């Protein structure tokens, strides 16, 4: 019997099935700027309507949150996570997402699972007026075990050069406003899994995995609602490293983000992890978003308007003078 690609562990037919299951839905994310469709060697996206456009790109994955999805066979939210982790980053510079590409790797391709993951991306792209214009599915037996998947993505957005937000105009007296997260998002799951090894246990009346797999919140509509009405000085996406590592990325030298930790609305699941795992509050803030998914910095005179525009936003501090870029009082 002669060797074949299939006998080596790669089933091309399953790949074709995946494409068939996602092709129509992916096409629904396209607009007139997309000049070709799935199947080409490259994806074409035409840019128009900008005076001095700057492209802003971001790439990320889902991390070990995937393990929760794989162990519980609940794949629907993972695609949303992948898109959100990329798109939320470029929002920090005032960009609007244009298009997204995904990379899905596995040991043994199952078209049903692959399609479920990609359809989550489709859902997120639609919410962000973004086109899913391409991707890659790699079946790699020997590199991954059967049943294992890895997911990553790449997002490109656009902003007028004179409207780029980079934190350089932040000054003392500016207010710091928090936008709540939807949970852990896609960070810190190595610690989450260590403290919560049983994803099936009950938490607040439902299986724990339902809380852990709540997808990363998409902030496109919230951020651009604010940008249309208010001059924003800085935006930070609170991912791995929490407030401690992400807020300083936008703070100019000589200034400090003074944040009152008592004002932060910490989700109950994070309080449970802190208690059960014996994790110090400072370590919690250095690992998780602690309920703050995005931070917006604006002039004090605009703070109330931002809070009015975003029903669930709330103030957590202000910019002061100081050598340290963040002072989080716990």
UniProtKB/TrEMBL annotation:
CDD domains: PurM
GO molecular function terms listed in the Swiss-Prot or TrEMBL record: ATP binding; phosphoribosylamine-glycine ligase activity; phosphoribosylformylglycinamidine cyclo-ligase activity
Enzyme class: ligase
Any one Pfam family match given in the protein's UniProt record, by short name: AIRS_C
GO biological process, one term: adenine biosynthetic process
Domain of life where this protein originates: Bacteria
Gene3D superfamilies: PurM-like C-terminal domain, PurM-like, N-terminal domain
Domain PurM-like N-terminal: 54-159
Ranges of residues in domain PurM-like C-terminal: 171-323
Protein name: Phosphoribosylformylglycinamidine cyclo-ligase
Organism from which the protein derives: Chryseobacterium artocarpi
